[in-house]
Each structure stands twice: as C-alpha cells, then as structure tokens.
C-alpha cells in the first residue's frame, strides 16, 4: 500500500527521514527531452534551505541534490528520475528527551498510536525535511512546464504571520524575492522581523498564511468531479506539514458574499479570448481552469516544537512536561513558500499532461 506518492501522469514518490542518511524523490512521467540539471533544481532547493537567516531553523543543510537516473546529457530520458539529497547536519542527541514523550501539537503521538514505533530523531518521516524532496521534484516540474507552456509563472508569498498582515494596496511583486519572509512589501520587513524575533525570545512560535499564484495557466486544465484542478491543488497543499486550511480564490470568505458580488462577469476580449471582471473563483470553475490566475491560499499552524513547557504524557502513559530543544523554525510559513510553489508546479504540470492526453489540440473555442 503506497501512501507516499501523488500525481496522475506526473507522479512523485518521496522517501527518507529527517535524520537518516538521505532523502529524495522518484519522479515518474516527466516527458522526455526536458532540460534537467542539478543546478536547475538547486535554485529552488536553495530557496527552501534551512539555516540561511535568523528567521528560520539553524540546522545547516547544503541540500545538494544528486540526479541518480532518468537524465542523460542534461535531458530527461522519459524514464524515472531519481533525486537524492544527503542529510549532513543531523543532531539526534537533541531528540533524546522526546524518545519517551510526545510533543504536544506534533505527530509523535499519532505515529506511535498507528505504527507502534517511531523514528523520533528530528521527527523522522513527519519532519518537514521531507519537503526538500518535493522542492526538487517541483524543480523538474518547472522545467517541463517551461518546455510545454512557457508563459506559466508560479510564485508564492506570505500574506500573514500571526498579527502581521500584508497591506494589499502596497503589493509589490518584485519585493517578494528580496526579503527573508517572501512578503510583497519591502517596507514591512523590519516589523515582521522584530515581531518574529520577539516571539523567538519568548520561546514561542507563530502561524502564517501563504498564497501561491500560477499566472498564464491556459483555460481548460482540470476535470470535473474527482480530479478537479482545485481538488488536486487542495490535496497537494494540505499534504504539506503543518497546513490546517486551504482556500481557492475567495475561499472561506465566499460565505460572506452575495451571488451578485461573487460571480465574475464575463466579456469578450479583443484577442478573441473571454475576459473576466474579477477573479473570485481563483481561476477555476467546475474544476477546470478559466485562463485567469490560479490562486491558492493556505494556513500553517504555529511550530509545535517550542522551548515553553507544555503538558504531555510519556509512552508508558505517565504525565510529563515537554520542552523541545533542537533547532526549529519559529514560523514554518517562511520555508513553506518554496514548498507551496513546488506543489503548484507538480499539479499544474500533471494537469497539462492530462489535458494533452485527453484533449490534445481539440479544445473548445468561443466565437
Ligand atoms: C517548511 C516547514 C518547516 C517546518 N519546521 C518545523 C520545525 O522546525 N519544528 C516543528 O516542530 N515543526 C516544523 N514543521 C511542522 C511539522 O513538520 C508538522 O507540524 C508535523 O509534521 C505534524 O504534522 P501536522 O502539523 O501537519 O499535523 C515544519 C513544517 C514546514 C512546512
């Protein structure tokens, strides 16, 4: 029974644990003759890499990716691509104390209840180290998208971190890549940093909201009912560690709106393509892309591994107080941004391939 794979035609299987020798992804279904080199994938891994600044975990991993198969002379061959990232900066002694106890808010208790054992070092398979493998796979997906639909651009950013929220009237697309928080407002960075450092000093952590947008997605991707584009996107984002809610377009806020406010009006554009007055739908209607921006948003919970003592129990059922030492992200939302982009890339590529398989050039045309 495989529970470690996602995707239909572009299928990704990840493997490995936080403190094992290595982790990685097997990427099956990548079209042949796509340019893929370790350097191309490394760009995205470097974006997610821990230990880069004081706002993320101080675990220092180079996250250097090796391509073991499926690529010859810099091009995908059409066979499975095996990606491997070695773990080099494990510090398992930090986890000695949680071998017998369960961290409140973490997966220790449920892994034990299910499997009867667990690799407690760094959280084992429940650690977000696993997301490095997704980011590497997402790098392959991005290169395949570039070959099939080069107009598509994928970008993620934080919109909220605890009490801090972006001011959308100041949204600056170009600012996103210039700061540690991936926020679209350079002037707000210092406030966000002060806020997070305050929480870190208080031995606490905080949640966040991440938005990820795919621009240039053609109309027609997705399918009705069980493999809606939004179904697959929601599953992909919800599969990221610490994610507790996913929205498409207006999301939960749609419950507040009237039909007259929410329905995006349709007009015929000069280039023969429909244009919409707004994008409450988040670029998806009936599970199928409209040609507008695909907009997905999700919330991550505050990091559960904190230095503030929390009540818990031991494996033998006796009460315990847990203080989690080790190197942890004070807000996991920061490093979740490149992970979200990778998941978006994998899902969009998967649906480009599905669309090509079922519809090819025979798409419906208006006018
Ligand atoms: C990029 C990223 C980094 C994370 N870093 C940490 C961390 O340093 N410490 C921690 O306790 N949880 C961290 N998490 C969250 C845990 O992996 C997650 O809470 C845990 O697996 C339990 O799963 P759940 O929160 O989805 O229920 C991180 C999550 C992400 C997405």
Any chance you could write out the topology, listing elements then pairs?
Layout: E1 5-6, E2 11-16, E3 22-28, H1 38-48, E4 65-69, E5 71-72, E6 75-76, E7 81-86, H2 108-115, H3 130-148, E8 153-161, E9 164-165, H4 189-201, E10 208-215, H5 229-238, E11 243-248, H6 259-262, E12 266-268, E13 274-276, E14 284-285, E15 288-289, E16 294-300, E17 310-313, E18 319-322, H7 333-358
Antiparallel strand pairs: 1-2, 2-3, 3-7, 4-7, 5-6, 8-9, 8-10, 10-16, 11-16, 12-13, 14-15, 17-18
Residues 57, 106-107, 126-128, 131, 240-242, 301, 303-305, 328-329, 332, 335-336, 339 line the site of flavin mononucleotide.
Q: What's the short story on this structure?
A:
With 367 residues, this protein is an alpha+beta fold. It has helices at residues 38-48, 108-115, 130-148, 189-201, 229-238, 259-262, 333-358, and strands at residues 5-6, 11-16, 22-28, 65-69, 71-72, 75-76, 81-86, 153-161, 164-165, 208-215, 243-248, 266-268, 274-276, 284-285, 288-289, 294-300, 310-313, 319-322. The chain has seven helices and 18 strands.
Shape type: globular
Q: Note the gap between the termini.
A: 48 Å
Helix content: 10-25%
Under the CATH scheme, the architecture is 4-Layer Sandwich
Structural class: alpha+beta
- In the CATH scheme, the class would be Alpha Beta
How are the strands of the largest sheet arranged?
A: 1-2-3-7-4
- Strand residue content: 15-25%
What is the CATH fold-level name? Chorismate synthase, AroC fold
Number of helices: 7
